Structure formats: C-alpha cells, structure tokens
Amino acid sequence: MAVPATKLKEKKEIIDVGLEEGAARLTYERIEQVINRVITAEMAARMKVYVDTCIHCGLCSTACHYYLSHGTPEWAPVGKVKQTMWEILEKKGKVSPEFIKRASIIASTECNVCRRCSMYCPYGIDIAYIMATVRRICHLLGVTPQYIQDTAHSHSATMNQMWVKEDEWIDTLQWQEGEAQADMPSLRIALDKEGADIMYSVIGPEPKFRAQLIYQAAILMTAAGVDWTMPASPGWDNSDMCMFTGDFEMMGRVKRTHFETAAKLRVKKIVMGECGHAFRSVYDVGNRWLGWKMPPIPVIHATQFYYELLKEGKIKIARKLKEPVTLHDPCNIVRGRGLHEMMRYLVNATCENFVEMYPNREQNHCCCAGGGVINCGPPWKTKRVESNSIKAEQLAATGVHICIAPCHNCHGGLEDIINTYKLNMHTMFFIDVLMKTMEIPDSLKA
Amino acid sequence: MQGIYEFVRGPLLWLTFIVFIGGSLYKLIPMYYLLKKKEAFVLSYMSLKYSLRSILHWIIPFASANMRQRPIMTVMSFGFHICLLVTPVFLLSHIVLWDESWNLSWWALPDWIADIMTLVVIGACVFFAFRRQILPEVKYVTSVADYAILAVTAAPFITGFLAYHQWIEYRTMLILHILSGEIMLMAIPFTRLVHMFYFWLTRAYMGSEFGGVRHARDW
Fold first, then answer.
1. d(CA A407, CA A29)
2. Three-class SS of residue B34?
3. Does B194 contact A120 at a Cβ distance shorter than 8 Å?
4. What is the 3-state secondary structure (H, E, C) of B124-156?
5. A152 within 8 A of A245, measured Cβ to Cβ
6. ipTM of model over 0.85
7. Count helices and strands in chain B by DSSP H and E runs
8. Of B54, B205, B214, the CB nearest to A336
9. Whether B138 and A56 lie within 8 Å, measured CB to CB
10. Contact at 8 Å (CB) between A250 and A242?
11. B146-195 pLDDT, tens per residue?
C-alpha cells in the first residue's frame, strides 16, 4: 500500500511572498536589535540552560518524522536548532536577512512543534520551545509565510481565523440549526444563552469549510440533553494561528476574548470541538501568556466531553461500527493533555474492531500538519507530505480503511498523506463515528 | 619534578576546588535569579512528584523508548557515567590520599575492578568519538569543542591507568593524572559538562510540565 520513503535529493526552492518581501525589508541593524531584545527580555534563563546543556548527541533525531522520512541530518531536531538558534546566539544577532528567511522556513515549515523530540532528549530539552522562539524572532522581524500570516491578520481584524464576519457566523449557526431541525424538530442552537452549563466553541474553519460539524454537535448536545450555548459575538473561535507565528501579543488578545465571552455568558465550562492546536492555545500557551496558571474557566476537549457523556450514560451506543478502524493520537491532546486512554475508551465503545497503530499514545508520529505547518498553505504542501512518509508507512501497516483523528489539522495532514501515498483510507472525527453509532431517543426524532 | 608535584597536589588542587565549587555556584545561583525575574512561571509549574518521576525514568537503563531503540548507546552511556562517577570516589589510591590528608576513609573497590571500570570510561569515550564521526546526524552537529570535552573527560582516566600500571615513567604520569583531573573538574561549570548539574533541572522541568500540566508521560 504505502510507497517507500521519498528521499529528497535536494531541497527545492519554494517561493513564498511573505518570506521574500519580509526579508527584503530587513537590515542588519534591525535584525540585531530585535534578536537582542528577545534574548534579553524574553528568552533569558531557560534558553541559556537548554543551549548549555545540549551535548550534541543527536539522540533526538529519531523522534522526528521529518528526519525519519528524509534520513538526512539537517532534518533532525538538533540539526534544526544548529541551523537557527545556535547561530543566532553565537553571532549575538549579527545574522543576514537571508539567514532569517531560512530560519523562518525551518521553524515554520520543518517543525510541527509536536514535542516528540522532548521525549527523546535525555535532558528533556524543550526543542519545540526553541523553534517557537525562532518563529517569535521571525514574526517580530516580519518574515512569516504568507498564508499563515493571513490567518493571523484575520485573528486581529475579526477575532477569528477565517475572516468570518459576525453576521456570517450567526447566519451559519442558524443555517445548521435549520438543517438539524429536519432530523430533530425540537433542536435549538441557543445563541448567547446566559447561564448555560456549557459554551461550545469551535475553530474558524468549522463555519467556513466544515459546517456539518456544527450540525453534528447540535444533534449530539440535544440527544444528550445538555444545557449549552454558542456565542453570537466574536470570541466564538478558539483557534490561534498567532501562537504559531510567534505573535504572542495577538495570541493574548484572542484568548482573552474567548475566555471573556465565556465569562460574560456565565457558563460553567467551555467545551471545544475536535481541534488540537486550539486546545494547546487555550490550555497550555495562550492562557499562560495571559498569566493564568490554568485556564480561568475550565476548558475540555471534545473527546473528553464525549467520554464523560458516555460514562454518565447521557448518550448510549445503539450499534457499533463493524469496519475495522485505527486511531491517530494528535500531539496536542495526547502529549499535550493525556487524553489517549479516554480516546481508546471511545473507540472501543463505538467500534467493534480497533486496530492500534504503532507507535501510539505519547509516542505517536505527528501528522506533519500541526504547529501551523499546514497553515503555511499550498506552496509548502508537497514538502509537508514528502516529509511524512513515515506516517504513510505507519498508517499502511494497520491495514484498515478508517482512521479516527480528533483534530482538524491532523485530518488535513492525514488526508493529504493518504491521497499522495494512495493508502485507500479515509479519516473520521469522533463525532462522525458517534453520529453513526449513537442512540437517538424516539421523542427527539422527526 | 618534585616542585611540580607539590604544586599540582597543593595550591593547584585548592584552586581547582575553588573554581569547581565557585564556578558551579556562579552558574546556578544567577541562573536561578534570572529565572525568577524573567520566567517565574517555570518555578510555579515545578512539581516534586513529577520531577522525580521523570528523573527516575531517565536514570534507569532502558526505561525510556529512546533507550530501548538504541541498546548499544544505552549500555555505553550508562556504563560510562556510572564508571566515571564511581571509580574516582571508590578508588583505593584516592581514599588513601583522603585518609592521609583528612583522616577520612571509606570502602574501596578492589583494584582489578577499578581497572576495568577505568577501561570502560576510556572505551566509552572512544566509542562516543567514533559515533560522532560515523553517524551523520551526530557529525552534523559536532564541533571541535565536542571532541575536546571527550578528551578532557578521558584524560584523567588514561593517565590514571598508565600511572597505576607504571608503563610510562610513574612520577610524570602521576603529575599528568592529577593535572588532567583538575582540568576536568574546573571545566565542568564552564563547558557542556555543566549538564552534570543541569540534567536534573531540565529533566525536572520537562517532567513537571508533562506530568503536572499535560498529564502525559515524557519517556
């Protein structure tokens, strides 16, 4: 099934306007000034300790799907650090615009900040943090891939990732409510309902490209009898591309709006859709940037929510999926939140035949789409897919045709891999599986 | 010759201890204050339970996935570190010196075991040097300094071994042994050998983040 690992002979030059024009505007003075500001004001102790501790042993190499797919040293995590942060620190910021462009390419398109390498480094050096800091420097210098920068701009202009206007958002929710009412006449997507138990938040691409997921969520919430609401104002989007471009100021604004929206609605908790990076932003990065040790309002990922509903008996499974399925562990909710056993509970509750892929759980190979890499857009797609032949091999080894992946970026990345390597599989969200398997009470049916 | 011997055994040894201890404090204390000032959140996430959990997993051979994938490297690096730390402390000739100077003594390794352990350290250093040459991903990130650190680490063991067996003029070799040991100790705080201290801290922080915040394993 899987074609063998594609080895790149040489790195093809990819033209990205965001990088080209950004780098063209740079001067040596500006670069030095920005880097030194980041070094003294932001990086400080942790980076110094990490750089001093790294013994250059290369043990992180086999953690990385880029390295495993290409097999040459510049793709190893430490190789990427050598090409970027070591030189930045060694030259104390006296590097060229060309260097910054290259550093941005490495940090934004050759690393998914999936943190698998931290589990392979004997010292636990946070290489994802080092790469994120390189991105931070590139952001402050205005050298960012164009597509992801566009989404970051969208966050700052509209508070969502996809330039969705307020009326379009409300219109989409009402449209999905109407669609769902054809199946469940009593169903409502209550907008801005103050005091509801749960605020359901999604990522910008859901209303834009995958509106059926909102429909499905509405069906699930209604079937489970949950008191829920969705916000009618900006703050409904939990996604965060600014976290990935290194625009932490904007990341803070986006996260604050999200939490303030929930606070305004006085909900008990936020349940978010099946997205990994957004979870990282609300749970791990954005909230901390704002100074909260833990999110100010509890946020749970959709898979945990489904798990709790099943455990509490609020939803029941009427029929299990017969076809064999496998499960992809998304980095941000597994290495990022330890939801892997809950996910397995869900799979076993809804599917008759579960085939594990190996390695799995925290050790799972990344989809190569997360960390903002897929968001760098079409110019980088081929490179991204070629850089994950290891994933194609891992998927093919399961021999099944359905891969459950509860993360939007994983879906995009895995589908590209499945298509390119002709794996004859398709991906499903957990909610897709639930729609096929759960019991709908007769009283709710049309 | 006697003069040089007296010097390396006397004033230079004192200087070594001052540089080693002072240098280590100099590396650790200002780093702590810098951390407290700029990245205080790091301290707030530290968890004793998860720090120890992580450290324990990483000081047990083959406890982590990476170690299981590279059995030779695992055996070599554990053998190296254990012998490196244990041999000098429990070597009879060293204990005799402690006894003469401070009237302190403790259990000693039989000489033949200490001999083998010394060879393990030297052999591991040769292995690490070859590894740097042979594996492309390691060679790519290797600089002269990495070989220098290996040489600095191996030197006290090579000279100690030669001095013990008296294959080359004993007195010269003894002086070189003491000198190389002193160089290694003084180098620890100021080179990547500082991982001797930092290992525990970086590992503890990653363990705390993975365990306390992310509820996942980090091995």
1. 41
2. helix
3. no
4. HHHHHHHHHHHCHHHHCCCCHHHHHHHHHHHHH
5. yes
6. yes
7. 12, 0
8. B214
9. yes
10. yes
11. 999 999 999 999 999 999 999 989 999 999 999 999 999 999 999 999 99
